[in-house]
Amino acid sequence: TLHRFGYKDICEELGAATTATNLHRLENILTLDPFVHQLFDMLHLWFEAVEGQVGVSMKIAEKILTRVVV
Questions:
Q1: Is 44 in contact with 64 (CB distance < 8 Å)?
Q2: Contact at 8 Å (CB) between 58 and 44?
Q3: Pick from 28, 26, 38, 31: which is nearest to 67 by CA?
Q4: 45 neighbors 39 (Cβ within 8 angstroms)
């Protein structure tokens, strides 16, 4: 879990807002290829917010990228 990296539980962090909203909405689903999913699970692939835009940018660890491309 993200507790290992110093992050709180998302429900704890959002507090009462999680009871009033439906966090399990269809637009929150992320479908990944099994290889990409493994990279995501191992924190070798992540998403970063794009300043000034609604959306994210996908990032991949440089050492992994060179293995995949070569």
A1: yes
A2: no
A3: 38
A4: yes
Residue 17 in tokens: 């807002």
- 62, two tokens: 């440089």
Counting every residue written for the chain, the total comes to 70
Task: Give 19-59 as a DSSP string.
Answer: HHS-SS-GGG-----HHHHHHHHTTSEEEEEPTTSSSEEEE
pLDDT in tens, the chain (70 residues): 567 777 767 666 666 555 566 666 666 778 889 988 998 998 889 988 888 888 888 888 877 655 554 4
pTM: 0.52
